[in-house]
TrEMBL record:
This is DUF1192 domain-containing protein. The lineage of its organism: Bacteria, Pseudomonadati, Pseudomonadota, Alphaproteobacteria, Sphingomonadales. It comes from the Bacteria. Residues 66-77 have a biased composition (Pro residues). Pfam families: DUF1192 (PF06698). Residues 44-77 are annotated as: Disordered. It comes from Novosphingobium pokkalii. InterPro entries: DUF1192.
Amino acid sequence: MDADDLPRRKGDLAGHLATEPLDSLSVDELTARIALLEAEIARTARHRDQAGRTRAAADALFGARPPAPPPSGETGR
């Protein structure tokens, strides 16, 4: 099953983008869309990295939290 086939949350922006028809877009419009999406990926990655640094600093100050238990119904095997 492809990731495109997986259900997404209702109102999820990525889900909306994945369903937009691309046939009517010109090569220039597609190129601009790709540049915009790449910029958003970079912004999201920077935010993720900052959150990781913040988490590491909190763990260093307060001690690391124990790992979360597996979701209900899973044994972790």
